[in-house]
Amino acid sequence: MSNVPSLWSSWAPRIRSLLRIAAAFMFLLHGTTKLLAFPSGVPPLGGTVKLASQAGLAGVLEVVGGALLVLGLFTRPVAFLLAGEMAVAYFQVHVPKGFWPTMNGGELAALFCFIWLYFSAAGAGSWSLDAGRGR
Question: By the 8 A CB rule, do 52 and 104 touch?
């Protein structure tokens, strides 16, 4: 029983990879919703956003950055860039609606911001192309 904490701790790099993959996949879906109307379109009408708009730029960052993070490729710089995107989204879109994230709809933007900030410091984990490249 005394080996359980050390055994669990030894799995930290792999669990970090699982968190990165799951979060990046969900983030990628936000981009495909904006750009491709997949798996559904942008509410309320269900279409796509204009590529030459701020939402279009966000969609491009979410698709390209999300795909790179799913693979664990260039994780630190990509995660840092996406943390900044989410900070801008939070303060520009959500804060004007109120202070509390649960009331202004900004929980996802805030969580993604801090998740990507963490990965920019911690790296991708053992299951990543970055690990395969020796980074």
Answer: no
Asked if residue 67 lies in contact with residue 82, where contact means CB atoms within 8 angstroms, the answer is no
Note whether 83 and 116 are within 8 A (CB). yes
As a whole number of angstroms, the distance between CA 58 and CA 129 comes to 24
Q: Does a cis peptide bond (omega within 30 degrees of 0) precede residue 43?
A: no
Q: What is the mean pLDDT of residues 48-54?
A: 97
CB atoms within 10 A of CB 6: 8
**pLDDT at position 135, please?**
57
Distance CA 56, CA 10 (A): 41
CA–CA separation, 9 and 28 (whole Å): 29
> Percent of the chain having pLDDT more than 70?
99
Q: Name residue, tokens 């710089």.
A: 77
